[in-house]
Amino acid sequence: MVEQVRRVRAGWWGLVVLLLLSVGAAVAFWLRPRPPIVAVEVVRPQRLVSDVFASGTVRPVRRQILMPTALPAPVTTWYVHAGDHVRRGQLLAQLDNAAQRASLASARVAYQSAQAMFNSAQAQYRAAPPGLKPQFLGTLESARTQLAQARAQLAQAQAAYDATLVRAAIDGSVLIADDDGMAADGTPAPVLEVASDEKQVVVAVGQVDAVHLKPGMLARLQSDSFPGVTWTGRVASVAPYAGSAGDASAGQVAVTILPRGRFPVPYGYQVDVHIRTAAAARALAVPYEALVSAGGGYAVFVVQGGRVREVPVTLGLTTDTAVQVVHGLRAGDAVVLNPPPGLVNGEAVRVT
């Protein structure tokens, strides 16, 4: 009987040990190191275009602005109105010039008198016998001096009068023609503004983008006020400096674009600009999430035969979502996206 009990107990202990071994094996199986699961993207040739996007405003290429503080006298007559198109040299306004007109009339009379005196002295000198000419020379030179002085005074009077006649310095459209010279907030405002027919779009871009921009680059222009319409233009200039701290454009670089052909967007309107900086027809590119830092450069993990291989890469053209790989990859390579922390060269992986 005792022997039978011992045998039963031994059997139970054997079952317990076997059960514990099974549980331990199962735990060890589930806790064993597993290859990380990674997502990949296959590298294929694609057209890659790099654009710089910015928004700006339409401005005239040239402007003629007259502030009230620059007027020597009040405006008495306007010959144009806002919206008129004018030509260079056209009379736009006349200032109070009663004193200038009187001075000009007096200077003309004085010049005519001095001219008559000089003509008379010159005639007497020419008619005198050779031996008597020296007697008339002093009178002739005095008349010549008076004529020169009268001519200079007439020129000064004419210039003073002309300063009271405001003329167009450029061909363009009149934006402001108002002798009030005061803005709604009480600050001085132009009494006259003429904008040239030629328009430009001025945008502000960041310093990182500005270094890639050069005059002559192609640009596409669009405005919400003209839906579905696209114009072309070219970069005319890139400012050699960025805005100073404290300015509204601090850290930004002004870029000017000249539209091509007819550009009906009015002055002051907002325009979206896409500037083409570079393009590649068949570029090998990878998403930014495939890149990892490698020393002083970058690398990607390429999956081959169930394991990853860390490959240093040389980067080229960049877009908003991808970057060109100039050296290091071939078409068909599968690169790991968002490599897990601790992934090392040669490690086994599972691809989703």
Automatic annotation (TrEMBL):
Domain YknX-like C-terminal permuted SH3-like: start-end pairs: 283-351
Any one GO CC term of the record: cell envelope
Alphabetically ordered keywords of this record: Coiled coil, Membrane, Transmembrane, Transmembrane helix
Regions crossing the membrane: 12-31
Subcellular location as annotated: Cell envelope
InterPro entries: RND_pump_MFP, UPF0194_transport, YknX-like_C
Keyword Protein transport: no
NCBIfam families: RND_mfp
Family of this protein: Belongs to the membrane fusion protein (MFP) (TC 8.A.1) family.
The name this protein goes by in its record: Macrolide export protein MacA
